[in-house]
TrEMBL record:
Residues 3-186 form the Bacterial bifunctional deaminase-reductase C-terminal domain. It comes from Streptomyces lusitanus. PANTHER family: BIFUNCTIONAL DEAMINASE-REDUCTASE DOMAIN PROTEIN (PTHR38011:SF2), DIHYDROFOLATE REDUCTASE FAMILY PROTEIN (AFU_ORTHOLOGUE AFUA_8G06820) (PTHR38011). InterPro entries: DHFR-like_dom_sf (IPR024072), RibDG_C (IPR002734), Riboflavin_Biosynth_HTPR (IPR050765). It comes from the Bacteria. This is Dihydrofolate reductase family protein.
Length: 208
């Protein structure tokens, strides 16, 4: 199974609280809802295509609860491509404390997350998508489990909040395989891991 991560980020890399003002106030975050005003029709159409091709979804605990409270509570999810895909496909959530998920079709992966995801990838074909779930994405990327990364970058600088990648972490090269921009300025970039980065080793001559 191919594992794809799908992450909405600001220009300065923030991924926290993109949807609603009170969606995620961890760490005193007060600038929630920064992405929603920038979502245009083309953004939603392309997101519908991305969600629609998934065979399963994988979440960390926090993102799962946010999705369950919004998409999982929709009265008529079939009327929305994203909602329809989320309701119809199997959902997996990595958590050591969640025991009774309320969203139908959810399986809790309570053991070692890396081993659990490797086992999930190995037993079924298709594509499993990780939406949001920054801590999980960072863990899986460090372990080399991510096959493709989709970044939706919004034309805004949030200035605070949790970022996709920490200031100090493993490095990695990426190959850009697709890119597009919506009329509202949201860019979709699709990357695949490409090993280690190449660093310049020669020091140019400097005038004396």
């Amino acid at each position: 199974m191919k594992l794809t991560t799908v992450t909405n980020v600001s220009v300065d890399g923030v991924m926290q609280g993109l949807g609603l003002a009170d969606e995620d106030r961890r760490g005193g975050f007060e600038r929630g809802g920064w992405a929603l005003p920038l979502v245009d029709e083309e953004t939603m159409e392309h997101l519908g295509e991305v969600y629609g091709r998934a065979d399963a979804f994988l979440f960390g605990r926090v993102t799962y609860e946010i999705f369950a409270a919004s998409w999982g509570a929709m009265a008529d999810p079939e009327d929305n491509p994203v909602g329809a895909a989320l309701h119809a496909r199997p959902k997996y959530v990595v958590s050591k404390t969640l025991t009774d998920p309320g969203w139908a079709g959810t399986t809790v992966l309570s053991g070692d997350p890396v081993a659990a995801v490797r086992e999930l990838k190995g037993r079924t074909p298709g594509e499993v998508q990780v939406h949001g779930s920054g801590q999980l994405v960072r863990c899986l990327a460090a372990e080399g489990i991510v096959d493709e990364m989709i970044l939706l970058t919004y034309p805004v600088i949030v200035g605070q909040g949790t970022r996709l990648f920490p200031a100090d972490g493993p490095d990695g090269a990426l190959a850009l395989v697709d890119s597009r921009v919506t009329p509202g300025g949201v860019t979709f970039q699709v990357y695949r891991p490409a090993g280690r980065p190449r660093y310049a080793t020669e020091v140019p001559d400097r005038p004396s």
